[in-house]
Amino acid sequence: MRFFDCKTAPSPRRARIFIAEKGLDIETVEIDLGKGEQLSDDFRRINPRCTVPVLELDDGTCLTENAGIAAYLEAIAPAAPLLGTSAEEKGSVANWNARIELEGLWPLADALRNRSKGMVGRAITGPTDYQQIPELAERGLARAAEFFEMLNDRLGHAAGDELLAGIAKTLDESVRETDFLARYGGEEFVVLCPDTDLAGAVTVAEKVRSAIAESSFILDGTSQLSKVTISIGVAQFEGSRRSFFKAADQALYRAKGAGKNCVKAARELPDYPDV
């Protein structure tokens, strides 16, 4: 089984997260979309639609959609189900997946692909070139804003913000005065540790992980306290910002794949054989 991925593309990330959450070890083949490798003859034989992600099964069958990949992985690795257990849960998950794609992701894709200078003449993924339509970008932004407003109202963004604020406070109290803490997007944070080698950064990360695991947080704006854990990927800057964050991201997925609530470094350290 092989997984065709592109680390810089948003769509394959959903499949990567699913694979990591399942703890599966699947051979990964990187397809560089920036270089047009998805349009090569070799990749067209795998997926004529020229898109990623693709999960190639042992019998040669290729699954080219996140929904299909998730359904297959759920079936072969049913432990810790991600798509629900009861009929009601499975129906609800499928329903929300469809709504998120149709009302959220596709409008955002329209906005991005129809206004980005890097996508002139490539407004739609696949083997055929399509010109951008600026009006679709404006409509996509409007539809996405409406969807996320509904989602925030339904899920209670105030509670989510309160949880993130509590986590940020604990993180800030756990790092050193010389470290730099920032929210990286969504529910991810980044800590930059100046004048620190990889082993030292792992020590800081373990202190942070332990502090979060030992703390309790208010999840719903009431007095109810709940436990939260985090996974951490650690990398050392070696001259390239892109390579630096890529290495940290890969280490983070290894941490999630190892069962979460742990720290993984971008390379093995003698004093930390399990990191």
CATH homologous superfamily label of the largest domain: Reverse transcriptase/Diguanylate cyclase domain
Name the CATH architecture of the largest domain: 2-Layer Sandwich
Q: What gross morphology would you assign?
A: globular
**Strand portion:** 5-15%
Q: How many β strands by DSSP? A: 10
CATH class identity of the largest domain: Alpha Beta
Structure description:
This protein is an alpha/beta fold and 275 residues long. The protein folds into three domains: 2-76, Glutaredoxin; 87-155, no CATH class; 158-265, Reverse transcriptase/Diguanylate cyclase domain (Alpha-Beta Plaits, 2-Layer Sandwich). Helix content is 47%, strand content 13%. It contains eight helices and ten strands. The chain has a four-stranded mixed sheet. It has a two-stranded antiparallel sheet with strand order 5-6. It has a two-stranded antiparallel sheet with strand order 7-8. The longest helix is centred in the middle third of the chain and has 27 residues, at 87-113.
Furnish the topology, listing elements before pairings.
Layout: E1 2-5, H1 11-22, E2 27-30, H2 41-46, E3 54-56, E4 62-63, H3 66-76, H4 87-113, H5 134-155, H6 157-174, E5 180-185, E6 188-192, H7 198-214, E7 216-218, E8 225-227, E9 232-234, H8 241-257, E10 263-265
Parallel strand pairs: 1-2, 9-10
Antiparallel strand pairs: 1-3, 3-4, 5-6, 7-8
Helix pairs in contact: 1-3, 1-8, 4-5, 5-6, 6-7
